[in-house]
Amino acid sequence: MAGKFEVYPDKSGKFRFRLKASNGQVVATGEAYDSKAGAKDGCAAVQRAAAGAEIAETDA
């Protein structure tokens, strides 16, 4: 089973997303969005950006 994005309202009434691995562990969270549609757009942006992303090591 693949991971999944969950979109949910936070305590302040904004919308956020979290990416869960197939074992249910949260592996990424998104910022607060004013609308559910904005949070869904954030999910799509992560999907596009991660498709060809490389792993880079930094000192900081």
Structural account:
With 60 residues, the protein is α+β, with helices and mostly antiparallel strands. 25% of the residues lie in helices and 27% in strands. It is built from 1 helix and 3 strands, in the order βββα. It has one helix at 36-50, and strands spanning 4-9, 15-20, 26-29. It has a 3-stranded antiparallel beta sheet, with helices on one face. The longest helix has 15 residues, at 36-50. The protein starts with a strand and ends in a 10-residue tail after the last helix. The model has no long low-confidence stretch (mean pLDDT 95).
Q: What is the straight-line distance between the termini?
A: 34 Å
Proportion of strand residues = 25-35%
Strand element count: 3
Largest sheet at a glance? 3 strands, antiparallel
State the shape: globular
Number of helices: 1
Please state the structural category: alpha+beta
Low-confidence stretches: none
Short description:
Helices cover 25% and strands 27% of the residues. By secondary structure, it is an alpha+beta fold.
Secondary structure layout plus pairing:
Elements: E1 4-9, E2 15-20, E3 26-29, H1 36-50
Antiparallel strand pairs: 1-2, 2-3
Structural key phrases:
single chain; 60 residues; alpha+beta; globular
